[in-house]
Amino acid sequence: MAKSFGGKYSPTGNGPQGNDLREAVLDQRKIDAAGTKAYLLFLPGVLLAFLSLNEGAVGLATGLIGAAILTLAAWLTRDGLRATAEYNARKVARRPALPRKMIGSILTGVGIALASMMNDSSIIAAVLYGVVAGGLHTTAFGIDPMRDKRMEGIDTFQQDRVAKVVDEAEAHLASMKDHIANIGDRHLDNRVEQFQAMARKMIRTVEEDPRDLTGARKFLSVYLMGARDAAAKFADLYKRQRDEAARGDFEELLADLEQNFAARTEKMLLDDRSDMDIEIKVLRDRLQREGL
């Protein structure tokens, strides 16, 4: 009889490790799904393109330009929602370099203004329609984060270092996921997602205490970069040859990486606990000496 895998580091496993991994996977799926409602914004652009086909040369050109602008607005809004969800999920984060949702609001207004000019040549009416559309877009999707997210009690330099390493680590994980997704194998997708969950557990640990960055930097830069490159080469080979031996080697690599990430993260958590115990002991001794 088939048995589901439920080992120590399985997202469905029992115990703290399994619970942490399951929560990390669910958090990442929330980030990935953050732009789902923005897909509806692609419909106006498609409809405008079709409706402009019988509007003559000027109407066709205006409609197609408006459709392209609305499509670009929808694309930026979707990515802006994902960036905001990722920003909200992290304890230390830089604000998005490009305010995608706000640009999406402006482009939505411009696209709707062009669409209105197909049936009404009034510039004033087009501007009013555009302003209303842009305002509704902002109301529905909000604005982008405008400030870096920092933790109290930790100096800016340390938090900037953590934010830079975390950004690079997330980029490696995203690239790794994209390479494996191109294969179209659900099991491999889940296996990579499980490893990503463990890597993100280390990332969250570093964000909570930037002092752990020194010990984790090699994992979050060198090892993740190597995992990304290995995923790219494996995906290219497996799509061409379906080499099962290469698949087994890749899955073994993921297992080894996952176990090493888990061990290092656990060590960082134990070190943090030891530091806390030392601080408590020092404080208690001081209180006893002062007779309190």
Q: Which residues form runs of ≥5 with pLDDT under 50?
A: 1-17
Content of β-strand? under 5%
Distance between the termini: 65 Å
Structure summary, number of beta strands: 0
Number of helices: 9
Radius of gyration: 25 Å
H/E series: HHHHHHHHH
Q: Structural class, from secondary structure content?
A: mainly alpha
Mean pLDDT: 77
Q: Please give the share of residues in helix.
A: over 70%
Main beta sheet, described? none
Shape: flat
Indicate the topology.
Layout: H1 15-32, H2 42-51, H3 56-89, H4 100-116, H5 123-141, H6 156-181, H7 186-208, H8 213-241, H9 244-289
Helix pairs in contact: 1-3, 1-7, 2-3, 3-4, 4-5, 6-7, 6-8, 7-9, 8-9
Overview of the molecule:
The chain contains nine helices and no strands. Helix 6 runs parallel beside helix 8.
Brief characterization of the structure:
By secondary structure, the protein is mainly alpha-helical.
Keywords:
flat, 292 residues, mainly alpha, disordered N terminus
